[in-house]
Protein backbone atom coordinates (compact mmCIF):
# COMPACT_ATOMS: atom_id res chain seq x y z
CA UNK A 1 0.00 0.00 0.00
CA UNK A 2 0.96 3.63 -0.52
CA UNK A 3 0.15 5.35 2.76
CA UNK A 4 0.17 9.10 3.37
CA UNK A 5 0.42 9.97 7.06
CA UNK A 6 -0.68 13.48 7.96
CA UNK A 7 1.36 14.68 10.92
CA UNK A 8 1.40 17.71 13.18
CA UNK A 9 3.05 21.06 12.54
CA UNK A 10 6.53 20.86 14.08
CA UNK A 11 6.37 24.38 15.48
CA UNK A 12 3.30 23.46 17.56
CA UNK A 13 5.64 21.29 19.65
CA UNK A 14 3.17 18.43 20.08
CA UNK A 15 5.94 15.95 20.71
CA UNK A 16 3.85 12.92 21.67
CA UNK A 17 1.89 13.20 18.42
CA UNK A 18 5.11 13.54 16.44
CA UNK A 19 6.44 10.39 18.11
CA UNK A 20 3.23 8.54 17.26
CA UNK A 21 3.46 9.51 13.59
CA UNK A 22 7.17 8.69 13.35
CA UNK A 23 6.69 5.34 15.07
CA UNK A 24 3.83 4.41 12.76
CA UNK A 25 5.77 5.49 9.66
CA UNK A 26 8.91 3.54 10.58
CA UNK A 27 7.02 0.36 11.34
CA UNK A 28 4.75 0.50 8.30
CA UNK A 29 7.88 0.66 6.16
CA UNK A 30 9.22 -2.41 7.99
CA UNK A 31 6.03 -4.21 6.97
CA UNK A 32 6.77 -3.47 3.32
CA UNK A 33 4.53 -0.46 2.66
CA UNK A 34 5.39 2.82 0.96
CA UNK A 35 4.98 5.69 3.40
CA UNK A 36 5.14 9.44 3.12
CA UNK A 37 4.60 11.88 5.98
CA UNK A 38 2.96 15.21 5.19
CA UNK A 39 3.10 18.12 7.64
CA UNK A 40 2.49 21.88 7.28
CA UNK A 41 5.48 23.94 6.22
CA UNK A 42 6.49 27.12 8.03
CA UNK A 43 5.73 29.92 5.59
CA UNK A 44 3.91 32.68 7.46
CA UNK A 45 5.56 31.52 10.70
CA UNK A 46 9.02 30.93 9.22
CA UNK A 47 10.74 33.26 11.69
CA UNK A 48 8.86 31.98 14.75
CA UNK A 49 10.57 29.51 17.05
CA UNK A 50 7.23 28.07 18.18
CA UNK A 51 3.56 28.70 17.44
CA UNK A 52 1.99 27.93 20.79
CA UNK A 53 0.92 31.43 21.87
CA UNK A 54 0.52 35.07 20.90
CA UNK A 55 0.91 36.33 17.35
CA UNK A 56 3.02 33.32 16.38
CA UNK A 57 0.02 31.09 17.08
CA UNK A 58 -2.04 33.00 14.52
CA UNK A 59 0.76 32.83 11.95
CA UNK A 60 0.79 29.09 12.57
CA UNK A 61 -2.94 29.00 11.81
CA UNK A 62 -2.20 30.59 8.43
CA UNK A 63 0.33 27.87 7.64
CA UNK A 64 -1.89 25.04 8.88
CA UNK A 65 -5.31 26.09 7.66
CA UNK A 66 -4.65 28.26 4.61
CA UNK A 67 -1.48 27.02 2.92
CA UNK A 68 -1.27 23.35 3.96
CA UNK A 69 -4.68 22.12 2.71
CA UNK A 70 -3.71 23.04 -0.86
CA UNK A 71 -0.50 21.03 -0.57
CA UNK A 72 -2.27 18.12 1.15
CA UNK A 73 -4.87 17.82 -1.59
CA UNK A 74 -2.11 17.43 -4.17
CA UNK A 75 -0.02 15.01 -2.08
CA UNK A 76 -3.04 12.83 -1.33
CA UNK A 77 -3.40 11.88 -5.01
CA UNK A 78 -0.29 9.69 -4.64
CA UNK A 79 -1.72 7.58 -1.83
CA UNK A 80 -3.92 4.52 -1.64
CA UNK A 81 -4.99 5.66 1.80
CA UNK A 82 -4.61 8.88 3.79
CA UNK A 83 -4.23 8.62 7.57
CA UNK A 84 -4.66 11.79 9.64
CA UNK A 85 -2.66 10.79 12.71
CA UNK A 86 -4.14 13.33 15.13
CA UNK A 87 -7.84 14.16 15.41
CA UNK A 88 -6.98 17.82 16.03
CA UNK A 89 -6.30 17.95 12.28
CA UNK A 90 -9.74 16.57 11.39
CA UNK A 91 -10.58 19.83 9.63
CA UNK A 92 -8.47 18.52 6.71
CA UNK A 93 -11.08 15.82 5.99
CA UNK A 94 -12.92 17.84 3.28
CA UNK A 95 -9.69 17.99 1.26
CA UNK A 96 -9.25 14.20 1.21
CA UNK A 97 -12.89 13.18 1.65
CA UNK A 98 -13.17 11.35 -1.67
CA UNK A 99 -10.13 9.17 -1.03
CA UNK A 100 -9.90 6.22 1.35
CA UNK A 101 -8.98 7.75 4.69
CA UNK A 102 -9.10 7.51 8.45
CA UNK A 103 -8.40 9.65 11.50
CA UNK A 104 -6.88 8.56 14.80
CA UNK A 105 -8.68 10.10 17.76
CA UNK A 106 -6.43 10.30 20.83
CA UNK A 107 -8.80 12.11 23.20
CA UNK A 108 -11.59 14.67 23.18
CA UNK A 109 -10.39 16.55 26.24
CA UNK A 110 -10.13 19.91 24.45
CA UNK A 111 -13.58 19.46 22.93
CA UNK A 112 -15.12 18.61 26.29
CA UNK A 113 -13.28 21.51 27.94
CA UNK A 114 -14.65 23.92 25.32
CA UNK A 115 -18.14 22.69 26.20
CA UNK A 116 -17.54 23.29 29.91
CA UNK A 117 -17.55 19.61 30.90
CA UNK A 118 -14.42 20.04 33.04
CA UNK A 119 -14.78 22.68 35.79
CA UNK A 120 -11.00 22.47 36.34
CA UNK A 121 -10.41 23.80 32.82
CA UNK A 122 -13.25 26.22 32.16
CA UNK A 123 -11.25 29.12 30.72
CA UNK A 124 -11.47 28.20 27.02
CA UNK A 125 -11.77 31.34 24.89
CA UNK A 126 -14.10 31.97 21.96
CA UNK A 127 -11.46 31.14 19.35
CA UNK A 128 -10.70 27.88 21.16
CA UNK A 129 -14.38 26.98 21.27
CA UNK A 130 -14.73 27.63 17.54
CA UNK A 131 -11.66 25.54 16.79
CA UNK A 132 -13.02 22.58 18.76
CA UNK A 133 -16.37 22.82 16.95
CA UNK A 134 -14.41 22.75 13.69
CA UNK A 135 -12.58 19.62 14.81
CA UNK A 136 -15.83 17.85 15.75
CA UNK A 137 -17.34 18.83 12.40
CA UNK A 138 -14.30 17.30 10.67
CA UNK A 139 -14.57 14.09 12.68
CA UNK A 140 -18.26 13.79 11.85
CA UNK A 141 -17.37 14.12 8.14
CA UNK A 142 -14.79 11.32 8.29
CA UNK A 143 -15.67 7.87 7.00
CA UNK A 144 -13.41 5.96 9.39
CA UNK A 145 -11.97 6.74 12.83
CA UNK A 146 -9.64 4.78 15.10
CA UNK A 147 -9.79 5.52 18.83
CA UNK A 148 -6.85 4.76 21.11
CA UNK A 149 -9.02 3.45 23.97
CA UNK A 150 -12.54 2.36 24.72
CA UNK A 151 -12.95 5.45 26.88
CA UNK A 152 -12.01 7.74 23.97
CA UNK A 153 -14.31 5.71 21.72
CA UNK A 154 -17.24 6.37 24.06
CA UNK A 155 -16.54 10.11 24.03
CA UNK A 156 -16.20 10.08 20.27
CA UNK A 157 -19.47 8.33 19.60
CA UNK A 158 -21.24 10.79 21.86
CA UNK A 159 -20.12 13.63 19.58
CA UNK A 160 -20.22 12.08 16.10
CA UNK A 161 -22.96 9.48 16.50
CA UNK A 162 -22.98 5.94 15.15
CA UNK A 163 -22.90 6.67 11.40
CA UNK A 164 -19.08 6.87 11.28
CA UNK A 165 -17.16 3.57 11.15
CA UNK A 166 -15.18 3.58 14.42
CA UNK A 167 -12.93 0.97 16.01
CA UNK A 168 -10.52 0.87 18.93
CA UNK A 169 -6.84 0.47 18.05
CA UNK A 170 -4.69 0.70 21.15
CA UNK A 171 -1.45 2.63 21.06
CA UNK A 172 1.79 0.72 21.22
CA UNK A 173 5.06 1.71 22.83
CA UNK A 174 6.78 4.27 20.61
CA UNK A 175 10.17 3.42 22.10
CA UNK A 176 11.69 0.05 23.14
CA UNK A 177 11.31 0.55 26.89
CA UNK A 178 12.81 -2.25 28.98
CA UNK A 179 14.53 -2.53 32.39
CA UNK A 180 17.92 -0.86 32.74
CA UNK A 181 20.53 -2.26 35.11
CA UNK A 182 20.88 -0.21 38.29
CA UNK A 183 24.50 0.81 37.75
CA UNK A 184 23.85 1.79 34.13
CA UNK A 185 20.77 3.78 35.18
CA UNK A 186 22.73 5.67 37.84
CA UNK A 187 25.39 6.62 35.28
CA UNK A 188 22.67 7.69 32.86
CA UNK A 189 21.16 9.98 35.52
CA UNK A 190 24.38 11.36 37.01
CA UNK A 191 23.52 14.89 35.82
CA UNK A 192 20.54 14.87 38.19
CA UNK A 193 20.59 14.80 41.99
CA UNK A 194 18.84 11.44 42.34
CA UNK A 195 21.72 8.98 42.41
CA UNK A 196 22.47 9.10 46.14
CA UNK A 197 20.78 5.75 46.69
CA UNK A 198 17.58 7.15 48.23
CA UNK A 199 14.42 5.33 47.14
CA UNK A 200 11.94 7.39 45.16
CA UNK A 201 8.50 7.40 43.61
CA UNK A 202 8.28 8.66 40.04
CA UNK A 203 5.81 10.72 38.03
CA UNK A 204 6.24 11.76 34.40
CA UNK A 205 4.09 14.48 32.88
CA UNK A 206 3.46 18.18 32.48
CA UNK A 207 1.62 20.87 34.40
CA UNK A 208 -1.70 20.38 32.60
CA UNK A 209 -4.62 20.29 35.02
CA UNK A 210 -5.54 16.71 34.10
CA UNK A 211 -2.07 15.38 34.96
CA UNK A 212 -2.92 16.28 38.56
CA UNK A 213 0.58 17.17 39.76
CA UNK A 214 -0.95 19.22 42.59
CA UNK A 215 -2.97 16.20 43.68
CA UNK A 216 0.16 14.08 43.57
CA UNK A 217 1.97 16.44 45.95
CA UNK A 218 -0.96 16.16 48.36
CA UNK A 219 -0.83 12.36 48.13
CA UNK A 220 2.92 12.37 48.72
CA UNK A 221 2.55 14.75 51.69
CA UNK A 222 0.06 12.33 53.25
CA UNK A 223 2.40 9.44 52.57
CA UNK A 224 5.25 11.19 54.42
CA UNK A 225 2.87 12.11 57.23
CA UNK A 226 1.95 8.44 57.64
CA UNK A 227 5.63 7.36 57.63
CA UNK A 228 7.57 10.26 59.18
CA UNK A 229 10.88 8.37 59.27
CA UNK A 230 10.79 7.43 55.58
CA UNK A 231 13.59 8.49 53.23
CA UNK A 232 11.33 7.99 50.20
CA UNK A 233 11.57 10.89 47.77
CA UNK A 234 9.38 11.97 44.85
CA UNK A 235 10.76 12.65 41.38
CA UNK A 236 8.66 14.67 38.96
CA UNK A 237 10.02 14.46 35.42
CA UNK A 238 8.72 16.57 32.57
CA UNK A 239 7.97 20.26 32.35
CA UNK A 240 9.51 22.76 34.82
CA UNK A 241 7.44 23.26 37.96
CA UNK A 242 4.72 25.88 37.75
CA UNK A 243 4.67 28.62 40.40
CA UNK A 244 1.56 27.04 41.92
CA UNK A 245 3.20 23.63 42.14
CA UNK A 246 6.39 25.01 43.64
CA UNK A 247 4.34 26.96 46.18
CA UNK A 248 2.44 23.84 47.25
CA UNK A 249 5.70 21.90 47.68
CA UNK A 250 7.05 24.66 49.92
CA UNK A 251 3.80 24.86 51.90
CA UNK A 252 4.10 21.18 52.78
CA UNK A 253 7.81 21.54 53.59
CA UNK A 254 8.83 19.07 50.89
CA UNK A 255 11.52 21.15 49.15
CA UNK A 256 14.27 18.65 49.96
CA UNK A 257 12.17 15.61 49.11
CA UNK A 258 10.60 16.54 45.74
CA UNK A 259 13.07 16.48 42.85
CA UNK A 260 12.48 18.32 39.59
CA UNK A 261 13.78 16.65 36.42
CA UNK A 262 13.46 18.54 33.13
CA UNK A 263 14.85 17.93 29.67
CA UNK A 264 15.35 14.20 30.21
CA UNK A 265 16.09 12.08 27.15
CA UNK A 266 14.04 8.96 26.48
CA UNK A 267 16.92 6.83 27.75
CA UNK A 268 17.01 8.88 30.94
CA UNK A 269 13.28 8.31 31.34
CA UNK A 270 13.93 4.58 30.97
CA UNK A 271 16.57 4.88 33.69
CA UNK A 272 14.10 6.70 35.95
CA UNK A 273 11.44 4.04 35.45
CA UNK A 274 14.00 1.32 36.17
CA UNK A 275 15.29 2.86 39.42
CA UNK A 276 11.95 3.97 40.85
CA UNK A 277 10.27 2.08 43.68
CA UNK A 278 7.02 2.71 41.84
CA UNK A 279 5.45 4.93 39.21
CA UNK A 280 2.52 7.07 40.41
CA UNK A 281 0.11 8.38 37.78
CA UNK A 282 -2.94 9.96 39.46
CA UNK A 283 -4.39 11.57 36.32
CA UNK A 284 -7.89 12.97 36.29
CA UNK A 285 -8.33 12.33 32.58
CA UNK A 286 -6.31 10.80 29.74
CA UNK A 287 -7.00 9.67 26.23
CA UNK A 288 -4.73 6.65 26.66
CA UNK A 289 -1.92 7.00 29.22
CA UNK A 290 1.36 6.00 27.58
CA UNK A 291 3.46 6.25 30.79
CA UNK A 292 1.49 3.39 32.33
CA UNK A 293 2.74 0.87 29.78
CA UNK A 294 6.18 2.49 29.60
CA UNK A 295 6.63 1.91 33.33
CA UNK A 296 5.34 -1.66 33.11
CA UNK A 297 7.73 -2.38 30.24
CA UNK A 298 10.54 -1.38 32.62
CA UNK A 299 9.10 -3.78 35.24
CA UNK A 300 8.10 -0.90 37.49
CA UNK A 301 5.13 -1.13 39.85
CA UNK A 302 2.35 1.22 38.73
CA UNK A 303 -0.18 3.13 40.83
CA UNK A 304 -2.78 4.97 38.78
CA UNK A 305 -6.30 6.38 38.98
CA UNK A 306 -9.25 4.06 39.22
CA UNK A 307 -10.84 5.84 36.27
CA UNK A 308 -11.16 5.20 32.55
CA UNK A 309 -9.01 4.85 30.56
CA UNK A 310 -6.26 4.33 33.18
CA UNK A 311 -7.93 1.20 34.55
CA UNK A 312 -8.62 0.04 30.97
CA UNK A 313 -4.93 0.31 30.09
CA UNK A 314 -3.48 -0.90 33.40
CA UNK A 315 -5.77 -3.91 33.73
CA UNK A 316 -4.75 -6.32 36.50
CA UNK A 317 -1.12 -5.15 36.38
CA UNK A 318 -1.72 -1.77 38.05
CA UNK A 319 -2.80 -0.83 41.57
CA UNK A 320 -5.59 1.72 41.65
CA UNK A 321 -6.08 4.82 43.77
CA UNK A 322 -8.65 7.58 44.05
CA UNK A 323 -6.82 10.70 42.74
CA UNK A 324 -9.18 12.95 44.68
CA UNK A 325 -8.61 11.34 48.09
CA UNK A 326 -5.00 11.99 49.14
CA UNK A 327 -5.19 10.18 52.48
CA UNK A 328 -6.74 7.05 51.04
CA UNK A 329 -4.36 7.05 48.05
CA UNK A 330 -1.33 7.34 50.33
CA UNK A 331 -2.57 4.46 52.48
CA UNK A 332 -3.09 2.25 49.40
CA UNK A 333 0.41 3.04 48.11
CA UNK A 334 2.07 2.31 51.45
CA UNK A 335 0.16 -0.94 51.94
CA UNK A 336 1.20 -2.16 48.50
CA UNK A 337 4.84 -1.11 48.84
CA UNK A 338 5.01 -3.07 52.11
CA UNK A 339 3.34 -6.16 50.68
CA UNK A 340 5.52 -8.47 48.54
CA UNK A 341 2.38 -10.46 47.67
CA UNK A 342 0.59 -7.44 46.19
CA UNK A 343 3.69 -6.40 44.23
CA UNK A 344 4.22 -9.95 42.94
CA UNK A 345 0.61 -10.26 41.81
CA UNK A 346 0.66 -6.94 39.94
CA UNK A 347 3.96 -7.69 38.20
CA UNK A 348 2.73 -11.17 37.30
CA UNK A 349 0.09 -9.62 35.02
CA UNK A 350 2.40 -7.01 33.46
CA UNK A 351 3.76 -9.15 30.56
CA UNK A 352 0.21 -9.67 29.26
CA UNK A 353 -0.35 -5.90 29.27
CA UNK A 354 2.97 -5.22 27.53
CA UNK A 355 2.16 -7.73 24.80
CA UNK A 356 -1.32 -6.26 24.34
CA UNK A 357 0.12 -2.79 23.80
CA UNK A 358 3.11 -3.75 21.68
CA UNK A 359 4.08 -1.59 18.73
CA UNK A 360 3.77 -4.62 16.45
CA UNK A 361 0.16 -5.20 17.52
CA UNK A 362 -0.69 -1.55 16.94
CA UNK A 363 0.82 -1.49 13.45
CA UNK A 364 -0.79 -4.78 12.41
CA UNK A 365 -4.18 -3.50 13.60
CA UNK A 366 -3.77 -0.34 11.53
CA UNK A 367 -2.78 -2.37 8.47
CA UNK A 368 -5.89 -4.54 8.89
CA UNK A 369 -8.00 -1.39 9.18
CA UNK A 370 -6.42 0.09 6.05
CA UNK A 371 -7.23 -3.11 4.16
CA UNK A 372 -10.83 -3.03 5.45
CA UNK A 373 -11.20 0.60 4.34
CA UNK A 374 -9.79 -0.11 0.88
CA UNK A 375 -12.15 -3.06 0.42
CA UNK A 376 -15.09 -0.87 1.37
CA UNK A 377 -13.96 1.76 -1.13
CA UNK A 378 -14.24 -0.82 -3.92
CA UNK A 379 -17.83 -1.72 -3.09
Task: Describe the protein.
With 379 residues, this protein is α/β, with parallel strands linked by helices. It folds into 2 domains: 2-172 and 359-378, 3-Layer(aba) Sandwich (Rossmann fold); 182-356, 3-Layer(aba) Sandwich (Rossmann fold). The chain contains 15 helices and 12 strands. The strands form 2 sheets. It has a 6-stranded parallel sheet, with helices on both faces. The longest helix is centred in the N-terminal third of the chain and has 22 residues, at 54-75. The protein starts with a strand and ends with a helix.
Residues in helices, as a percent range: 40-55%
How does CATH name the architecture of the largest domain?
A: 3-Layer(aba) Sandwich
Total number of beta strands = 12
CATH class of the largest domain: Alpha Beta
Oligomeric organization of the protein chains: single chain
- Strand order in the largest sheet: 2-1-3-4-5-6
The major pleated sheet works out as: 6 strands, parallel
- The average pLDDT is 93
Q: If you consult CATH, what is the topology of the largest domain?
A: Rossmann fold
Helix/strand/pairing class, anyone? Answer: alpha/beta
The number of domains:
2
Task: State the end-to-end distance.
Answer: 18 Å
List keywords for this structure.
alpha/beta; Rossmann fold; 15% strand; six-stranded parallel β-sheet; single chain; 379 residues
Amino acid sequence: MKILLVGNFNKDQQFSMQKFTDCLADNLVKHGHEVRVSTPRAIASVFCKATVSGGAKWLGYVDKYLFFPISLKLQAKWADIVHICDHSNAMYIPYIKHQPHLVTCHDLMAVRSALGEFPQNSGVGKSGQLQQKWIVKGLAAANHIASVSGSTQNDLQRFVGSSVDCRVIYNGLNYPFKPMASQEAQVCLQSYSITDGSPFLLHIGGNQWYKNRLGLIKIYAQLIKQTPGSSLKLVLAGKPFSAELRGLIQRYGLDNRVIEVTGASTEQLRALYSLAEAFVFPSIYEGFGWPIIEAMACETLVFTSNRAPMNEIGGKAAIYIDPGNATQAATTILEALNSPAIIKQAKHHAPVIIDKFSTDNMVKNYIHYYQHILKQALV
